[in-house]
Specification:
With 509 residues, this protein is of the alpha/beta class. It folds into two domains: 167 residues, Leucine Aminopeptidase, subunit E, domain 1 (3-Layer(aba) Sandwich), CATH 3.40.220; 314 residues, 3-Layer(aba) Sandwich (Aminopeptidase). It is 35% helix and 21% strand. The protein is built from 14 helices and 20 strands. The strands form four sheets. It has an eight-stranded mixed beta sheet with strand order 8-9-11-10-14-18-15-16, with helices on both faces. Strands 1, 2, 3, 4, 5, 6 and 7 form a seven-stranded mixed beta sheet that branches. The protein has a three-stranded mixed beta sheet with strand order 12-13-17. Strand 10, helix 9 and strand 11 form a beta-alpha-beta unit. It is elongated and about 80 Å long. The protein starts with a strand and ends with a helix.
Length: 509
């Protein structure tokens, strides 16, 4: 999708459709019954006149995602005018604008419209933030997962123009270069998010560990990253017993993928390590999952895909900080070679692990991934994984779970997360939870009580991050959209990529 900036008067813009945000600016009613006061968020008199009749009719309220499409709007050169509601003005943010851009794309492409212009709201969001939000939201909305339908209709939006106004917002008119830079950077991030979604969307017969490694290598060559991919021999040579314990049950060979970004002039004494869980299909192993919904377990490599996508964006944005991504990719299968409950595996760190549940496999491969990142010299670690159903019980399908061993590092991440507009919630890592790790036969168990299951998994991983500052992202409830939303299709979401990219950029300033 092409992205462009324009400072043309909205009334003079020739486009298939002009999209304008409507916000409800009703004052608080003392009785709690606000009468909607929808307002067109632009100063162009012609646009306001074109929308005046439908607003006065009461058909438009400005509620979130409400869409009203006007054909041949009087006084405008645009063929259509789409009014899209953003809800209460006092609650409107760049995060809401991002969703509206996605909703606009999904509304218009369903009508076979190929291009449109989106008017930047004039008073609600800073211009740079608004441009970023519109670009990112539009790309997210343009993605659909129905690759393999033989009768698939091509309904992609080909181009979007973001219109910044001439009056009322000094930074929008006075610094078009800054807006252009924001647009291009956001395009990189958005394309990388969709690259991640593309990886997650593939069925497991078309996204084996080997294929994932090939896709990572191809991407790395395109953007100038170093990429190495190793097989079982290397995993065994590194004594990654926890990783191999999972991989041994599958006929598909595992892959240890290492992506390196090492820019000239990188900040001193900082080497970020991004570790991703890459279970390309998870049956649960011997502790097999129920058949209902198991087809979704192709998404169990979403953490790996997120890290690969983040590395793509990092390579193109070129922040001055060293970053290495470690991807542990395997299937978890219940063959005659598979590990069994009661087995003991020796991790790369030397810690022994009693296998209580073979379906708690993600933490095993991450354990060795974290140890390997530390061996490679990473000074700060972040892992991402579709790790536990327990995080969905705790936070539903709205927030990803965040765990952090270091408050200062968490504050950096929280700032990046807010900037990215992704919903996450920090969960505890109190020492009392460590009691649940005890084993009678080994250093620890890989699964314990069902109570606080997401915390147990995080405490397990913390043992392998050791004293290295570390953040764990449990994205099990948010990496896959269970239903289509106005701004995004059902399927892979690409959650955490934007936050990770902002986090990495923050170390370079």
């Amino acid at each position: 999708m092409n992205t462009n900036l324009s400072s043309s008067a909205l009334s003079q813009l020739e486009t298939e459709c002009l999209v304008v945000v409507m916000l409800d600016r009703a004052e608080n009613d003392p009785n709690g019954k606000d009468k909607p006061a929808p307002t067109v968020e632009c100063a162009d008199a012609a646009v306001r006149d074109a929308a005046k009749d439908v607003i006065s009719s009461g058909e438009v309220t400005g509620k979130t995602f409400e869409t009203t499409l006007l054909h041949r709007p009087a006084g405008l050169k645009a063929k259509r005018l789409l009014l899209i509601g953003g809800g209460k003005a006092k609650h409107f943010t760049a995060a809401e604008l991002r969703k509206l851009a996605g909703a606009a794309v999904r509304t218009l492409k369903s009508k076979s419209i190929r291009s449109f212009a989106f008017a930047l709201p004039e008073s609600s969001v800073a211009a740079v933030d608004g441009v970023r939000a519109i670009v990112e939201g539009a790309f997210v909305g343009n993605f659909d997962p129905d690759y393999y339908k033989s009768d698939r209709k091509d309904q992609k939006i080909d181009a979007v123009t973001i219109v910044v106004h001439k009056d009322g917002q000094k930074d929008a008119q006075g610094d078009m270069k800054a807006l252009e830079a924001a647009m291009q950077a956001s395009r990189v991030v958005a394309e990388s998010q969709n690259f991640t979604r593309d990886l997650v969307n593939e069925p497991s017969n078309r996204m084996t560990p080997t294929i994932l490694a090939e896709r990572a290598k191809k991407m790395a060559a395109e953007v100038g990253l170093s990429c190495e991919a190793y097989g079982a021999d290397k995993i065994k040579a590194l004594k990654m017993g926890a990783f191999w314990g999972v991989a041994q049950g599958s006929d598909e060979p595992p892959a240890l993928i290492v992506l390196r970004y090492d820019p000239v002039g990188a900040v001193d004494k900082v080497h970020l390590g991004l570790v991703g869980k890459g279970v390309t299909f998870d049956t649960g192993g011997i502790s097999i999952k129920p058949a209902d919904g198991m087809e979704k377990m192709k998404y169990d490599m979403a953490g790996a895909a997120t890290m690969i996508g983040a590395m793509r964006a990092i390579a193109l944005l070129k922040p001055k900080v060293k970053v290495t991504a470690i991807i542990c990719a395997t299937e978890n299968m219940p063959s005659g070679k598979a590990q069994k409950p009661g087995d003991v595996q020796i991790a790369m760190s030397g810690k022994s692990i009693e296998i209580i549940n073979t379906d708690a496999e993600g933490r095993l491969i991450l354990a060795d991934g974290l140890s390997y990142a530390r061996q490679l010299g990473c000074t700060h670690l972040v892992d991402a994984a579709t790790l536990t159903g327990a995080v969905v019980v705790a936070l539903g399908y709205v927030n990803a779970g965040v765990f952090a061993s270091d408050d200062q590092m968490y504050e950096r991440f929280a700032k990046a997360n807010k900037e990215a507009g992704e919903k996450m919630w920090r969960l505890p890592l109190d020492d009392e939870y460590k009691e649940n790790l005890k084993s009678n036969i080994a250093d620890m168990v890989n699964a314990g009580s069902r109570w606080g299951g997401a915390i147990f998994a995080a405490m397990f991983l913390k043992e392998f991050a050791e004293d290295t500052p570390w953040i764990h992202l449990d994205i099990a409830g948010t990496a896959w959209m269970e239903d289509s939303k106005p701004w995004i299709a059902k399927g892979p979401s690409g959650i955490a990529l934007r936050s990770l990219v902002e986090f990495v950029k923050g170390w370079a300033t």
